[in-house]
Specification:
Blueprint: H1 3-19, H2 30-47, H3 56-67, H4 82-89, H5 93-103, H6 106-112, H7 115-131, H8 140-167, H9 173-180, H10 198-209, H11 212-232, E1 242-246, H12 252-264, E2 268-270, H13 296-301, H14 312-328, H15 330-334, E3 336-345, H16 363-383, E4 392-397, H17 405-416, H18 420-434, E5 439-444, E6 451-455, E7 465-466, E8 469-471, E9 481-484, E10 487-502, E11 505-515, E12 518-523, H19 530-540, E13 550-556, H20 559-568, H21 576-579, E14 584-589, E15 608-609, E16 632-636, E17 642-648, E18 654-659, E19 662-663, H22 673-676
Parallel strand pairs: 1-2, 1-3, 3-4, 7-15
Antiparallel strand pairs: 5-6, 5-17, 6-10, 8-9, 9-13, 10-11, 11-12, 13-14, 14-16, 17-18, 18-19
Helix pairs in contact: 1-2, 1-7, 2-6, 2-7, 4-5, 7-8, 8-14, 11-12, 14-16, 17-20
């Protein structure tokens, strides 16, 4: 432990304790400083306790104290809410709301006893407080400069820590909780420091009720998917020594079994939480081990907080920091195999409110963000090569999905373990028909305005080549799709979905217009003002790119999942991982093979999938900065909105694969059986 850091920590701790009782700060800012100092005092208490003697009720009370301010029922009076901050503090409100969000990282640092992070967080608060105790308070510009200096001064340290978290198994905070706790004693959930809701508690209780063989089976589906992903991708798993496990809290019993199974493969777990420092955050998305968000609107309100400091100097600084950090940890990065992800679904659908008081990227900053993400992707790929890594992903429901949660959970386990050999055979039949043409026509029905023409690659040797991958649930669980990367030239038309959830956000009447395979216009019906709807799409689908190509066209075949969704009325709560198997889907952004296009991929029948590139990704051979977008968003048309999918040959003759939401191609009728049950 660094004595100098601890000395700074104790000085900061003492000063924060004094502020709670002081009245030196100018009005109307005093309320912010006193409330925030009281919050930081609670975080400091956490850092100095071990909690082992706490009762379950005491753990719950501590969790409530730390998170109560941003819960929906209190959010209207929270400085985390930019509307409230601006109402109370006027033109200073945005900056103070930014500060508030950054200071909440103290919870993470306290639980993990990350003294440096906690100390610089406290010192930032004290620096701002001191400036508002002066006779002449700083201007808004001067306050923002203080916050920008904090970000720039500590960028290198914060980035290095985050990159180390991604590849170094010695950072084992979560692993120790996972492997050393009595998982029947639910106090362990609170040791992470994340917000703990009924979802986490009831998930853990439910998994504890399952027999050990069921837990082992669930874990095996997940870990085998990861292993088979290396085999089917013809990648050498023996080169890899670590796997990044991402999971929702409450699933520890399954994850513990998975850790042991991965270790039997020679893989040590790397486990980290979602980023806490603004330097490392990416919009509202959380990557790592996670609990239910205390308030999705709070996360959404702060999704672009980096607008306060994002400029060309910061971009250069962060990219240099990434390069330096990866060079430091290059040996760990080289043997890292990629992520194994467990997702959850079933939470109440979230339709965000757009707030004019929230920080928002300018057009110039959006361009900088795109540039930074592109360069960052190249740095990562140099050290964790795309053609040598793999992944797997699987999803389960949480109790919030409804009173029949146990029944739905068992249904999802069944869906995750469907007979892949049956699907492989049927999907091969679909692929053989698709491979006879260069065009596919997709039309909607029942108010769906989709009308698309998809251009496929030309097969020079159909006996040895194919356009579509036969997806049989290895990395991408559950089974149920055939997919390709379309030729952009000639791919055009309208993609429309009445309602869809993408990355946890609801889109109503989403419409994307394609020309030359690229999105050229777009709209949705979430907000009254068209400009708000367009900005919503730009922020959360286009990710500020001037244009995005259609990176994937797929036909989902998992009618069992679709029927289950209708039976339990959960279609609006399913993750894209399952929803994409329940109809055709189209991804905007990179292809499915990004960063690994030159690695041959083969279907179970031995034919090579040649559609790994499009006119954008192939630019990597000339200028890699033009080849990738760093995003891939799947949008599914559900079967009830699907009028037809037909192949079109050179003479214009059409062959139907789906008509009015049902499979009609000979050899595929078994996919309609769930509809008749």
């Amino acid at each position: 432990m660094d004595e100098w850091i601890m000395e700074r920590f104790f000085l900061a701790k003492e000063r924060v304790g004094e502020i709670v009782r002081e009245t030196d700060a100018a009005q109307p800012y005093l309320d912010f400083f006193q409330k925030t100092a009281a919050f930081l005092e609670e975080a400091i208490k956490v850092s100095e306790q071990d909690g082992m003697s706490f009762s379950l009720e005491e753990w719950k009370q501590q969790n409530e104290v730390l998170y109560e301010d941003i819960l929906p029922e209190n959010y209207e009076r929270s400085y985390g809410n930019p509307d409230f901050a601006v109402k109370m503090l006027g033109e200073y409100g945005q900056a103070f709301s930014f500060l508030y969000a950054e200071l909440r990282g103290a919870i993470v640092y306290a639980y993990e006893k990350r003294w440096w992070d906690l100390t610089v967080t406290l010192e930032l608060f004290l620096e701002v407080y001191a400036s508002f105790c002066c006779e002449e308070i700083p201007s808004v510009k001067e306050l923002k400069e203080v916050l920008k200096s904090y970000v720039n001064d500590y960028c290198q340290d914060m980035v290095e820590r985050r990159i180390r978290e991604g590849v170094d198994p010695d950072l084992d905070f979560a692993l120790r909780i996972l492997m050393e706790s009595d998982l029947k004693d639910l106090r362990y959930l609170y040791r992470y420091g994340e917000y703990i809701s009924e979802n986490e508690i009831r998930s853990a209780e439910f998994l504890n009720s399952l027999p050990e063989e069921k837990i082992e089976e669930m874990a095996r589906t997940y870990t085998e998917g990861y292993r088979i992903g290396f085999l089917t991708g013809r990648k050498d798993l023996s080169k890899k020594k670590t796997v990044n496990i991402r999971y929702p809290l409450g699933f520890e019993r399954m994850v513990k079994a998975a850790v042991l199974q991965f270790e039997a493969m020679g893989l040590k777990p790397v486990i980290y939480r979602s980023a806490a420092h603004i330097v490392n955050k990416k919009s509202q998305y959380r990557v790592g081990f996670v609990g239910t968000p205390a308030n999705p609107q709070y996360d959404y309100d702060h999704r672009q907080d980096y607008a306060l400091f994002l400029d060309s100097d910061f971009v250069k600084k962060k990219l240099r920091a990434m390069q330096t950090a990866y060079e430091t940890y290059k040996e760990q990065a080289y043997v890292h195999g990629g992520p194994a992800c467990i997702e959850t679904f079933g939470e109440a659908p979230f339709a965000p409110e757009n707030k004019g008081t929230a920080l928002c990227l300018t057009e110039a900053q959006q361009a900088l963000q795109v540039e930074m993400d592109n360069e960052a992707g190249q740095i990562v790929n140099r050290y964790i090569r795309g053609d040598e890594r793999s992944f797997t992903i699987i999803a389960y429901p949480v109790p919030e999905i409804g009173s029949n949660y146990p029944e739905i959970f068992r249904e999802i386990v069944k869906i995750n373990t469907l007979d892949y050999q049956l699907y492989e055979r049927i999907q091969q039949t679909i692929i053989e028909t698709l491979d006879t043409c260069e065009w596919v026509e997709v039309k909607g029905q029942n108010g769906n305005e989709t009308d698309l023409v998809i251009h496929l690659h030309t097969l020079e040797d159909p006996a040895r080549q194919t356009n579509f991958e036969n997806c049989v649930a290895d990395v991408n669980i559950p089974v149920g799709e055939v997919f390709t990367s379309p030729v952009l030239a000639g791919t055009s038309g309208v993609l429309h979905v009445k309602k869809v959830y993408l990355n946890g956000l609801q889109f109503q009447n989403l419409k994307l217009i394609f020309d030359g395979g690229k999105v050229v216009d777009y709209s949705c019906g979430n907000f009254e003002k068209e400009e708000d709807n367009r900005r919503y799409i730009e922020d959360n689908i286009l990710f500020h790119h001037a244009e995005l190509p259609m990176g994937e066209f797929a036909i989902g075949t998992n009618t069992t999942a679709y029927v289950a969704a209708q039976k339990y009325d959960i279609a609006d709560k399913l993750p894209i991982l399952i929803a994409e198997k329940m109809g055709p889907h189209f991804a905007v952004g990179d292809t499915c093979y990004s960063w690994a296009e030159d690695t041959p991929v083969f279907n179970p029948d031995g034919r090579e999938i040649i559609a790994r590139d499009n006119e954008i990704s192939i630019l990597r051979k000339e200028n890699i900065s033009k080849a990738y977008y760093g995003c891939h968003t799947d949008i599914t048309i559900p079967y009830e909105e699907l009028g037809s999918i037909r192949t079109v040959d050179e003479e214009g003759k059409k062959t139907s694969i789906i008509e009015e939401g049902r499979f009609v191609l000979p050899g595929t009728d078994e996919l309609n059986v769930p509809f008749r049950c």
